[in-house]
Structure formats: structure tokens, C-alpha cells
Amino acid sequence: METVSFSKCLFTFFFLFISISQLTHSTVTYDRKSILINGQRRILFSGSIHYPRSTPDMWEDLILKAKQGGIDVIETYVFWNVHEPSPNNYNFEGRYDLVKFIKTIQKSGLYANLRIGPYVCAEWNFGGFPVWLKYVPGISFRTDNEPFKREMQRFTEKIVGLMKSEQLFESQGGPIILSQIENEYGPQGKIQGAAGQNYMNWAAKMAVEMGTGVPWLMCKEDDAPDPVINTCNGFYCDKFTPNRPYKPTMWTEAWSGWFTEFGGPIHKRPVQDLAFAVARFVTRGGSFVNYYMYHGGTNFGRTAGGPFVATSYDYDAPLDEYGLIRQPKYGHLRELHRAIKMCERALVSTDPIVTSLGSSQQAHVYSTESGDCSAFLSNYDSKSAATVMFNNMHYNLPPWSVSILPDCRNAVFNTAKVGVQTSQMQMLPTNTQMFSWQSFDEDVSSLDDSSTLTAPGLLEQINVTRDATDYLWYTTSVDIGSSESFLHGGELPTLIVQSTGHAVHVFINGQLFSSTYGTREYRRFMHIGKVNFRAGTNRIALLSVAIGLPNVGVHFESWSTGILGPVVIHGLDQGKWDLSHQKWTYQVGLKGEAMNLASPNSISSVEWMQSAIVVQRNQPLTWHKTNFDIPEGDEPLALDMEGMGKGQIWINGESIGRYWTSFAVGNCNNECNYAGQFRPQKCQVGCGQPTQRWYHVPRSWLKPTQNLLVIFEELGGDPSKISLVKRSVSSVCADVLEFHPFIKNWRIESYGKSGEFRPPKVHLQCSPGQTITSIKFASFGTPLGSCGNYKQGACHSPSSYAILSKRCVGKPRCIVTVSNSNFGQDPCPRVMKRLSVEAVCAPDTTNWRG
């Protein structure tokens, strides 16, 4: 009896302990100022890193670099189509191991924001929806539609349940402090009217009822119902306010750059403008900023959407596609975060007093009763600098900039003054021997009867392929009489093919006649080309190619892909011949795909041609393969595909993604002024060059020897020009004023009191395994130009090269003080001077063993 009583007491104690533990973990709330964690208001900086766009062996390094860059939270979408490729068939392995990714965040001591969606946009294939969802009877995406809501709730419950079972919500002691339902629904909801409003309210209610214990977000949704927080996405969000006065001001997508599309240029967003946008947002009450992207990564396989989104999703992010630090973006934002965190107590405790300092200049002052005082001095003029008076002191504000004064006196950071180094990257040859290629041609003259279907008329492509492949053959035949005029010297007939997207290769009697493509903006196109038929039966084979399914748009699930006609021949003696309604034969995919040629485990008996023949042929629809050993070192690797046309790449059976060396068109020029509103049409580079030349090869996919590389080439190309390269820093630059504001320059004893000024310093650092081998340029004075293009100005200290060489050459990193005394004398008194330097980095050979 006593034992029973003791057991009951023990059970009661255990139950109370668990209940109290859960309550003590339920610590994420919010008020009008910020997210509160453990009852403490926080200014939080977040970075988007999407787990499928990198490899698991990269995750820890990426997250650690983000943490070192001042990031508090890692944000990721959840990608439904990779997790549930067919109904109730789930995949959480490899790059799709969401639990491992979240636990890696937790291990690094950071928080997580899980944007479940499950619509994600993200330039991801079909916006993250699995294609099978389109074929659920009666379904209509993202509206008040019962089949869609049922499937959406089922998947959301699956993800929430998985996170709960692993104790990953903050209410359970895990790292997830925020979750998002839906994604950028506001514009679409307004188009849908009452049905959109009903759906949005349902989604919010459904999410909240899951009891995660953390706040839910809806981005770009002004009508988000309580308790869901509506948030902002965009290049700038300083004018955004939440829809209720008791909700915090949050920016879930601060676009660090822009995505790349095949045929388009590369977009670069100056870090001065991004820092200005973030500082301005915080100045006006913002307390949560997420950089989209912090690491963009790679659209491996066929995950890129659009259509026409490139395989690289670099996004000009602080960590580049390969996971390397992009300077100066990474370092300048890190300094911004440090400066703002110095103001955190004041920012979250009170509202600002706003004072005009000029026609386009303002001071936002946060002052508390306890004595904290922080100020933000802003110059909104995009063309002119300004000198302003604040607290009886003068401050110089460059155009389009914010100066941060944590103590209301000392400017420790200005968004336009970049003091960290700039790193210039290069692609270098590896020690891998030249590839020895073999090739296999797709047989265009006939189709495999076991994998074909015949139907009258033209069929929509995805309805046939279910997106199992990019390729669908449309074939038919026409009989040409021997008396046709064009066979006797007349003008050749014209074949017109109307396609809903995205590309078509036209074959007549097994020969490629021409290829035509749409664009991301105009995916529909018309192929028009002369054709040379022969007398008798002629076989027309149209290879329709998808280049990623749409990821954004109202009811994009209803959009068509492929050839829906008309398909017409003009110029025959009989006049127009419409082929649209005659019998067509369809084959899903390529023969090489059916034979699994990309896999090391392929057992197909294929006769591969040897390399001596391969390089001279320039044959379309050809498979190429070779083997290679892993290169030495640990630098990120890539394939240089400049000599090829368009197709896909596999390494040891893993798909690198689509490649296409199309040449970029855009609005490129040599100048990129950081000041003024940024937009994707601004600061473009790479016009006239291949949109994407290099394709990331993760080292974790490689074996020590005998790695299988398979290429499928649609157009032709010369595989002998393909090479394996490594990415590394070629040189590092710095450009620092002698009175440059730095956080570490000031010893602030207390708010309102300044200590001794410390001269700024130039910090130069090569990549791991590299040393500084020479100084390419150095000038203390008034140098001109920018990294890679410096030149001496009217004022120059003759000791510049000697001092930099002595301090830096032969070392992996060095620090040089920017002061007159360090360079012997003042080269030009009463003139503001700067130190500009470019140092060359190369592999450290001191430990080299032959």
C-alpha cells in the first residue's frame, strides 16, 4: 500500500515537472517593439539558408559563418515537392534532412525561423508544390478550395508533427522561435476577393491551432488575423507598419541581391545600399531583419523554377554559392549588426524623437530614463553629402547613408563607408588530368514503342510527363508528293510551331533543323523555319523542353507547357497544311534517361564512342561520359562548361543541374552607384558573356578515384573544352579613410562620454591555405579607383609599398594602421587621406611536399 502511494506521488511529481518544464520553455512572445525571448525584447538579424540548395556537409560551416557575421536566426522554407514526391511517400534524407538541418542550427547556438508555407515561391520548381497535387480531383491552388486545404493541412501537420517529435520548437527547448504559414499571399488574395480572404483566415486559424508555442508569421499579407504577425518583403521596408499597433515591425525578406535567369545578366546589390536599407528600417522601429538570401546556394537537379531560372542561386549573398565569404558584403553587414546591437537597449525600450537636420537629413534619437541614448543620423539625399550639427557636434554624412551613434556622440559606423576588405575571386585549374570522353547518341530516327502513346491532336506536356523529365517528343509524319514545286527549285516550305513553353528542337527525318526558346517573361513562343522535305514520307520530331515549372502567378497550376499548336506547314502547292489535329506519337523523356546512363549502376549495354571521334562531331542529343579522380585541396570545385551548349550534368549519379551557356543580355555598364533606389535593372554585370559558365560540384559527392561525370548535350558543343576548376581568392583590397568610423576605434566608458580615438586599421586576409605573395598596389594619400583598378592620386606617400610589403607579404593576414605616423610623415597636410591597397593571394607552398 505504501509502495502504491509512493508510485502515485512519483507519477504526480513527474507530471508536474514535465508540465512546468514545458511552461518554462514557452518563452517566445511579442509586443509592439519586438519579439521577446525569455521575456527579453530582442533586435534579431536573420539569414536565409535553404537546406536543399547546399549539401549536409556544408551546413555547419555555413551556419557558423552566419553566426560570426552577426546572424541570430537561420531562416528556411520547407519544400513540399522534395519531401513528398508522391502522395504519402516521404523523403527526409540527404539534402532533404530537415531535422538534421534544424539540429545543426541548434548545435551552433542560433535560432530558426521555419517558413512552412507550404507554397514557397523561391524561384523553386512549381513554387514548392509537388506536381501530383495538380491532379487531385477538383483542386484549385491557394484559394478557398476544400481539396487544396485538405492537402495543405495534411502536409503542414506532417512538418509540425515532425518538429514536435524531435523537440525542435522553442516551447520544447528547441531552436525554432518563429514559423510562417502561406507566403506572399496578399497580392493574390486581393485578386481572389472573398475566396482569398476566407482561405487566408482559414490558413492562419489552422496554423495557430497546431499549438507550436511560437508566433506565426504571414509575409506580404496586410490582413493577417490575430495573433499572426504580418511582415514585409522587399528591397526596402522602412515605410512598412504592421496591421495592429501591438505587433512588432518585421522584415522577413531583405533582398540581398537578385536571382539569375538563363539569358539574363548577373545582379549585384551594393552593400552600402543594403546596409542603408537595414539601418533605415531599424531607425524607424524595425526589430527583425532576415536577409534573403544569406547563402543562396545551387538549384541542384531540376529544382529551379521560373521558368528559365539558372542553376546558380548565388543571389549576391554574403556567403556565395560555394559557401565562401563574399567581401565586402559579409564584413560590412557584420559591422552594421555590431553597431546596431550596441543600441539594442535603447531601441527596444522607447520610441524615437525625430529631429530634422536639413532638407533630406534627420536624427532619430532613442533615449531612456535609465540613461541609455542612441542616435541614427540619416541622409536620404542620393546625390549630395551633408555636414550636419547634432548635440553641438558636426557629422559628415555621405549621400544615401546612416551614421550610428550608440552613445549619441560617437559615430561608430556609417552605412556608406566600407572599411572591410574586398575579395576578388578566381577560378583556377585543378591538378585533374584532361578528361577522356566517350559518347552515345540519342536515336532520333525511331522511338521505343514500349514507351510511347499515340493520340489525335496535341497534348499538354506536363499532363503527359508529370514532370518526371524535361523532355517530351511530339512526332508525326507528312507525305510529300514528288511534284511539289520546292522539290524542283521552288522556295522551301515553312514550318510554324506554336509552343506554350519553354523550348523546342525541330528534327526533320532525324536531322536537327533549328531550335527556338521562350524567355522567363515570355515563355510562349512561335518557331518559324524553312524545312527541306523529301519526296515521300517525312518524319517530323519536335523535342519539347521544359526549363523549370512556374513558381509564381495566380493559379499557375493551370498554366500550360509544351506544344499545343497550331503546327502548320506553309508554302506547299496545296497551301497551308495544319498538322495540329492529326495523329501524334509521344515519348516521355530520352532513351538515355530510360537506360539510366547517368548512374554508376547503369547496366545498359551501350556502345560508347571513344574520345578521338567525340571531340570533332558537335552532335546534338548526345551523352558524354568520363571518369576522374578528386583533386587535391579543399577549395570548392566547379565544372567550366564554356565550350558546351545546353543540357544537364551528373556526378556519380547526382544531378548538378541544368546548364546552358546562353549569352546574357541586359543593361550592363562599368558604373554601379550605391546611392538611390535599387532595382534588378541596376548594377547588372556579365552582359555578352554566358549567363552561367561554372557549375558547382560538391566535394562530398566525390570519391577519391573513378568519379563518373555524365553530360547530356542538347545542341552540340565540344566536351574537350570542359574542365574542373577550383574557386579561390585571387586578391584582397582595402580602402580606408584616416578618420574612418570603426566600432573598435572608440573606448566608450559610458553613454555620452567618449574615450581616446584609435586610428583605423586595414585588415587583409586571404582564404585558408593562402598567403599574401605580393602587393599589387598601395597608396596612402589620395588614391583613385576601386579594387582591381587603383591608381595613384595627387597625394601619395612614397613609403606605401615598402610598409605594406613588410607587414603583409608571406603572411595569411596582416593589419596596418592608417595614420601619418605609420607612414613616416604627412604626405599632404590638411587633406583627408586614405589607404588603398591590393594584395595578391596564392596557395601557401611552405608545407608543400613533392
Automatic annotation (TrEMBL):
Highest taxon in the source lineage: Eukaryota
Its EC number(s): 3.2.1.23
Class in the EC hierarchy, top level: hydrolase
Record's signal peptide: 1-26
GO molecular function, one term: carbohydrate binding
Protein name: Beta-galactosidase
Domain SUEL-type lectin: 760-842
Stated family: Belongs to the glycosyl hydrolase 35 family.
InterPro entries named in the record: BetaGal_gal-bd, Galactose-bd-like_sf, GH, GHD, Gly_Hdrlase_35_cat, Glyco_hydro_35_CS, Glycoside_Hdrlase_35, Lectin_gal-bd_dom
SUPFAM superfamilies: (Trans)glycosidases, Galactose-binding domain-like
Membrane-spanning parts: none
Catalyzed reaction equations: Hydrolysis of terminal non-reducing beta-D-galactose residues in beta-D-galactosides
GO cellular component, one term: plant-type cell wall
Keyword line: Glycosidase, Hydrolase, Signal
